[in-house]
Design brief:
Helix 5 links the parallel strand 7 and strand 8. It is built from 15 helices and 15 strands. Helix 1 packs across helix 15. It is α/β, with parallel strands linked by helices. The strands form 3 sheets. A 7-stranded parallel beta sheet has the order 3-2-1-6-7-8-9, sandwiched between helices. The chain has a 6-stranded parallel beta sheet with strand order 12-11-10-13-14-15, with helices on both faces. The protein has a two-stranded antiparallel ribbon with strand order 4-5. The longest helix has 17 residues. It has 2 domains: 193 residues, 3-Layer(aba) Sandwich (Rossmann fold); 170 residues, Rossmann fold, CATH 3.40.50.2000. It is globular and about 65 Å long.
């Protein structure tokens, strides 16, 4: 099942366009997407990353990244690490001469929050180059009035002037519409994974159930949280839910790093495993009773894609962007109110839906779908 409100037929352009993509960092779900995109004959792709990695995200993707035609811009990335979240602002002064020398037909920017993206948008507007916004932002999390006013003044002109929008999901598309981009110029280009590969690996893990539980020291039943250990991810709400459940709750396995790790390690019934690479995570998704995404702010949340592809039902809050598109309440997961530990506890002990991927939309949210939508959006931008 794929989103229908933002899909249209592909049109054609007269020649192969040169498209520059500016993205903050490579991720395990974006690198395969870019690789498929770079292999397509319809465009010439130039991919620029602002940095190779960020704090709390030590992915081991060097081999896949090195096989991808790309450049990592020189620069530095001051960061502020708080209990709420880790804030990073990449500074890449070299993007200025690079953009001055380049003659792309279109520029795709992964937002407008870091220097290279901001400069690219400014230069594109000055030189009349169409730019496309690849946006994760949503309207789900409430903002103070002064923030809303500032975004209306600063963000709306950027969105309205873009030639097309690449939204990671339905909620991101609504965000772009709210700030002035017409629906017909928006395509869904999701953050997603190799759904079939995750499913195959999960089936192998379930076939090795007993051996894996023994070798990894896993309990017979457990709930999984996978993500950065910060307040925005709803970690304290999950802790409170576990406290409310007491001995009625299953053990909680936590895969991730962040400033709340020490606090979690001190709690009974909580096992902090640290940051895990994809193969280990798939094992946990395959054997967990639930994967929980209790976030208070979550524009998308690829962990939902991963868990559902592995056949693990999910519990998400109502601010998780991927929950809108991928979770059918009572069918492949549950949706609860953000910031409500009691509701989260009730879901953890309530009826468990099937984790069968065929019971929900996940099988249609593939890299292949994302590539086709990206190409459509580029065509729209060039025609404009």
């Amino acid at each position: 099942m794929q989103p229908s409100g933002y899909v249209a037929g592909v049109t054609t352009v007269a020649r192969i366009p040169r498209v520059m993509v500016i993205s903050e960092i490579p991720t395990p779900y974006r690198v395969p997407f870019f690789a498929q995109l770079a292999a397509r004959p319809e465009i010439e792709l130039d991919i620029l990353f602002c940095a190779r990695s960020e704090p709390d995200r030590p992915w081991q993707i060097d081999a896949a990244l090195d096989a991808l035609p790309h450049r990592v811009l020189r620069g530095f990335a001051p960061s502020i690490r708080t209990r709420r979240n880790t804030f990073v602002y990449q500074l890449n002064p070299g993007v200025l001469p690079l953009l001055a020398r380049s003659r792309p037909d279109a520029i795709v920017v992964g937002g407008y929050s870091v220097f290279a993206e901001q400069v690219a948008i400014a230069i594109a507007r000055l030189r009349g180059i169409p730019y496309l916004l690849h946006s994760e932002s949503t309207l789900a999390s409430p903002r103070p009035a002064h923030i809303r006013l500032a975004k209306r003044a600063l963000v709306a002109p950027i969105v309205r002037s873009s030639a097309a929008g690449l939204a990671t999901g339905t909620e991101a598309a609504r965000y772009l519409e709210r700030y002035g981009l017409p629906r017909e110029r928006i395509r869904i280009v999701p953050n997603t994974i190799d759904v079939a590969a995750y499913g195959r690996d999960a089936r192998v893990a379930r076939a090795r159930n007993a051996a894996l539980r023994s070798s990894r020291g896993l309990p017979d039943r457990f709930v999984l949280f996978a993500g950065r250990l910060v307040e925005d991810k709803g970690v304290h709400d999950l802790i409170e839910a576990q406290r409310l459940l007491g001995s009625d709750g299953d053990p909680l396995l936590v895969a991730g790093e962040g400033p709340l790790a020490r606090e979690l390690r001190a709690l009974p019934g909580v096992h902090v495993l640290g940051f895990l690479q994809t193969d280990r995570l798939i094992e946990l998704y395959a054997l967990a009773q639930w994967t929980v995404v209790p976030s208070r702010r979550e524009p998308w949340g690829v962990v939902v894609n991963e868990a559902l592809a592995c056949g693990c039902p999910v519990i998400v809050t109502d601010v998780v962007g991927s929950g809108v598109d991928l979770v059918l309440d009572g069918v492949n997961g549950r949706v609860v109110q953000a910031g409500a530990p009691a509701a989260l506890a009730a879901a953890l002990t309530g009826p468990q839906p099937s984790g069968d991927p065929s019971k929900g939309p996940i099988e249609g949210w593939t890299h292949e779908f994302a590539v086709e939508q990206f190409l459509e959006a580029v065509t729209l931008a060039l025609e404009r």
